[in-house]
Every structure is written in structure tokens, then in C-alpha cells.
Amino acid sequence: MMASRSLRNLLMRRLTVPIQQGLNVDLRPMSSAAQEQASREAPCKASDHSYESLLVTAAQKHILHVQLNRPDKRNAMNKAFWREMVECFNKIAQDSDCRAVVISGAGKMFTSGIDLMDVASNLLQPEGDDVARISWYLRDLISRYQETFSVIEKCPKPVIAAVHGGCIGAGVDLITACDIRYCAQDAVFQVKEVDVGLAADVGTLQRLPKIIGNQSLVNELAFTARRMMADEALSSGLVSRVFPDKELLLDATFALAAEIASKSPVAVQSTKINLLYSRDRPVSEGLNYMATWNMSMLQTQDIIKAVQAMMEKKDAKSVTFSKL
Fold first, then answer.
1. According to its UniProt record, which protein family does this protein belong to (predicted)?
2. Least confident of 123-137, 177-191, 290-304
3. Residues 157, 188 contacting (CB under 8 angstroms)
4. Which DSSP letter does residue 277 get?
5. pLDDT tens digit string along 256-278?
6. In this predicted structure, what is the pLDDT of residue 19?
7. CA–CA separation, 15 vs 300, rounded Å?
8. Which of the residues 14, 51, 277, 282 has the least number of beta carbons within 10 Å of its own beta carbon?
9. CB-based contacts of 55: which residues, under 8 Å, 6+ apart?
10. DSSP summary character for residue 20
């Protein structure tokens, strides 16, 4: 009991320390009228994001919506896509106002995968005078294509994939680089590459086993290119929730993004970075990195703001956190 009282006194002393100049602390909850107005606001195009294959909008406060935007081509991934995704997520990573990202597909499906007609010249007629030079060219090309999805993983902002309809070939590579995956009941997942004579080379074979934890199932999907339907995707752990249709899927996905965006960006982004670091390393190494990370992050004002709201029994979502 004495220890509990001492801890409370320590917290109170920290909470009464004057906030540094320049930090705007506003613990007042948003009024119901303001909440209704915010929910009615239509998404607006993000001013610094202009692409041929993507549509990026500011869906809600602190949330960006990245749409694969070639619906007439079933959102097939053309040359522009492979370049623009890197540009897009590098910008998002540096966007201090963004705290969560939703990825979806425009039209009737998420994506049909790589646009073979558009990228055929790169793959089937590679540059180079001999085998060595052609190999160097192809290695560089594959590495750049890999970065198209690795950039999602490297982005410190949580990225949620909302999948409806087909998610074929490179679409699986894309979603396995995302942090959270939701889907509609009509979703179909297919590791398609063996059907076109190649092994998946931009992320699926490396990330999918870590996601679903069933090597036998991964091998089956990758060797046969069979389809995985929504219910199997849910039971295997590829997705965490399934919704009846695209509309309900997007509603739930944006609600989740809003929940994440309401938290301390220091806490959320630190969590993502450490989850990914620990995924590929021993527990002891992950713990050591976490200790080194938090020796600075524990000094954030976000902790004081969050604890003060809890002690005053205020809604945690009413806390205003600074941009990061």
C-alpha cells in the first residue's frame, strides 16, 4: 500500500511539472457536434501525392487512404505502380500529421497482380551484352521491385490492408508487408507466380510463413497456386477479420485506423518498429533493443498526458498528442 502511494505521489509530481513551451496540451473532449461534423467530412485528395496508378486521400484526421487506382485494368501493377509506391510511402513515412494508413483497391477487386503486358519488356527482354550483365540488370530490377513492398514495412506508420475481391500474385506480396489485414467475404487470395513460370520474388515466400505459421500450408499455396477463400484466410491467420461486403469492410478498417490514430504516435510507431525488429531476431536481442529504444522514448510528454487523462477519468481519445 505504501508502495502504491509512493508511485501515485511520484506520478503526481511528474504531472505537475510545467509543460515545455511550445507543447500544446488540450485535454478537452471533442463536442458531439464537432464529432458529427468530422464524420461527415468527405475525403480530400492529399495535396503532395499525385500519381498515375494510386489515389491518395486524407480520409480522416491523421489517416491517409492509399487506393490502387486502375479499376479498368483490375488494378494490375504496371511500371508506374512499382515506382510510385516507393515514392508514396517514403513521403508518408516523413508526414508528421499521418498516424495510420489504409490500403484498398478501387473497383471490383483489390488487384490482379503484376501487369505482365506492361512490364514484359523489362522481364523478357532484359538489357545486357552477356549473361553476367543481363543477370546484374535483372538483380537490380528485382531488388527495386522488392523495395516497392518493403517500403510499406519500413514505414513507421501502421498500415492496414482492406481486401475485397481478388488479391492475386503480387497482391499477396503487398498485403504480407502490411501490419494488419482485413477482408470482405468475397476476397480470394492466390500465390499465382508458379502459374506463369516463376517463383514469387518480392516478399510472399519470406513473409507469409511468419504470418500464418504453417509451413505446410504455405508450401501448398506456393507450389499449386490454388485459391484461398476468405474463411480459410481468417482461420489460417492471414487476415484478422472478415466482413460481408466492401462497404462494411472499409467502415471497419477506417474505424480501426481512427482508433490507432487516437493513440500516442510515439507509442504506436515505437511498437511497430520493435515488433518488426524482434520478429527476425532472438528474444534476448529484441529485449536489448527495446531497452535501448525506450531509454529515450520513456521521456516523452505523451506518457504524462495519457496518465493524467486516466487519473482524471477522461476519455483517452480526448488527449491531444503532438505530431511526430
1. Belongs to the enoyl-CoA hydratase/isomerase family.
2. 123-137
3. no
4. H
5. 999 999 999 999 999 999 999 99
6. 35
7. 12
8. 282
9. 45, 66, 67, 69, 106
10. P
**Distance (Å, rounded) from C-alpha 14 to C-alpha 301?**
10
- Residue 112 pLDDT > 60: yes
The 3-state secondary structure of 62-115 reads CEEEEEECCHHHCCCECHHHHHHHHHHHHHHHCCCCCCEEEEEECCCCCECCEC
The residue written with cell numbers 503487398 in the block is 174
Cβ(158)–Cβ(180) under 8 Å? Answer: yes
| 8 A C-beta contact, residue 298 and residue 310 | no
User: pTM of the prediction?
Assistant: 0.85
Coil, strand or helix at 181? strand
Compute and round to an integer the Cα radius of gyration of the chain: 22
The more confident residue out of 222 and 124 is: 222
**Dihedral of CA 70/74/79/83: which sign?**
positive
Answer for the pair 161, 179: CB distance below 8 angstroms, yes or no: no
Query: What letter does residue 194 receive in the DSSP assignment?
Result: G
pLDDT in tens, 24-47: 333 333 333 333 334 435 678 877
Take residue 59 and report the three cell numbers written for it.
480520409
Q: Are 67 and 53 in contact (CB under 8 A)?
A: no
Helix spans in the chain (H): 2-15, 32-40, 79-93, 116-124, 131-154, 170-176, 204-212, 215-224, 230-236, 246-261, 265-279, 283-297, 301-311
| pLDDT, tens digit, 9 for 90 and up, residues 50-91 | 999 999 999 999 999 999 999 999 999 999 999 999 999 999
